[in-house]
Write a structure and sequence with these properties.
mainly beta, 1 helix
Amino acid sequence: MITIRQGDSYDLYFQFRTSCGAPIDMTNSVIKMQAVNESEEPVLTKTAEPIDIQKGLFCFTFTPTDTNISIGDYNTDIQFQMSDGRVHTFFPSDVNKVGILRITKQITK
């Protein structure tokens, strides 16, 4: 689950590594996230920005505009597409689960 307070900024960093812990070069890869409502309509679509692509380090930067959506849980997944066209969903890692983006209530406006 990814939890963000409504209307907040939020940076979600992640790095791709081998099972031995070595960074993976993600040159020419694209990492995307989509969250949908109960009607399966997209409410948030983001593309991660590379921080150090050769070391597999990326960041999704959420702005108040992105997170100013209705409070609640949204089905989400994060995938990367390799330069050869292969697509891999890595969040959630369990193919039998659905990822959740939770937007929580802000206290002050």
